[in-house]
Amino acid sequence: MSGLSEELTTAVEPAAGPTPASRTWRAFRRNPLGLVAAGLLVVLLLVALAAPLIADYPRGYGEDVLAGPSAAHWFGTDHLGRDIFAQVVWGTRTSMAVGLGASALAIVLGVAVGVGGAYFKRLDGVLGLFVDVMLSLPVLPLMILVAALAGPSVTTLVVVIAVFSWPEVARVVRSQALPIVTLSYVDAAHVMGAPNRWVLVRHVLPAVSPVIAVSVVVTASRAVLSEAGLAFLGLGDPSSWSWGTILYNAQRSGALSSSWWTAFFPSLAILLLVVAATLVALAYNDARNPRTRQDGTR
C-alpha cells in the first residue's frame, strides 16, 4: 500500500512554487479588515482562556445596585450589585465554548454527510433528501422545545445548536465536493486500486478544506447567537455566565428600560464577535479566490 501511495502522490504532485496556502495567507495579510477581525477573534479567545486572571467570578450581592459605568465598575453593575464587566468576561468563556463546541460537532456531521453524498452516488439521494428536510424545519421553535425538554446545560446547548446547524454545512461541502470527485486524478486513483478511504483523505477532504475553514468560523458565530437567544429566553445554563444570561437577567429584573449598560455591553460583545467572524470569512474567501486575490498571483 505504501508503494501505491507514493506512486499516486508522485503522479499528482504539483509543480514547484508557492503553495496555495502561502498564496492565500499572503493575500489575506493584504486585507486590513480581515487582519483586524482575526485579531479581535484572537483577543476574545484569550479573554475566554484568561478569565480568572482578568476578573473575579461574579457571585453574591454588591452594595452598588444598578450603578452606571465608572472607574470602580467599568461596565456598571446589575440589579444585585454584581459587576457587569466580570459577567461579560466570564460570559466570553461560556459563549466561546458553546460556539466552538457546537461548530466542531456541526462540522463533523456536515462534512461527513456532504462528502459522503458527493462521493457515494447511491447515498446522495437519501442524504440530500434528509438535508432538505432538516433545512425546511422551523429551527428556532424546535431548538426551544428540545432545549426545554432536555434541561438547561452547556452540553445541551452545544448538542441542540449543532443538530440544527450541520445541514447548512453539509450542503456547502457537498456542492464543493461534487466537481472534485469527477476530476481526472481521482479517477486515476480509482483505476490504480486506491481504497475509498485513501481517496477521501488524500484528495477530497483537502480540496474542500477551505470551505470547511470558513464554515467553522461562520458556524461558531451563529452558534454564539443561538446560545444568546436561548439563554435570553431562560434556557441557558443557570450555573454559568454567558452573554445571553446577562441579557436574560437584565430583562427579568426590568433593568433593560432604566439601565442601558446592563444590555449594551453584552450585546456589544455579541456584535463584535459576529461581525469579526463575518469579516474573517469574507477576507479568507477573497484571499483564496484567484479572481479576487490582491497579490497578483494565480
TrEMBL record:
Keywords annotated in UniProt: Cell membrane, Membrane, Transmembrane, Transmembrane helix, Transport
Organism phylogeny: Bacteria, Bacillati, Actinomycetota, Actinomycetes, Jiangellales
Organism whose genome encodes this protein: Jiangella rhizosphaerae
Principal subcellular localization: membrane
GO CC entries: plasma membrane
Protein name: ABC transporter permease
Annotated compartments: Cell membrane
Listed SUPFAM superfamilies: MetI-like
InterPro entries: BP-dependent_transpt_permease, MetI-like, MetI-like_sf, OppC_N
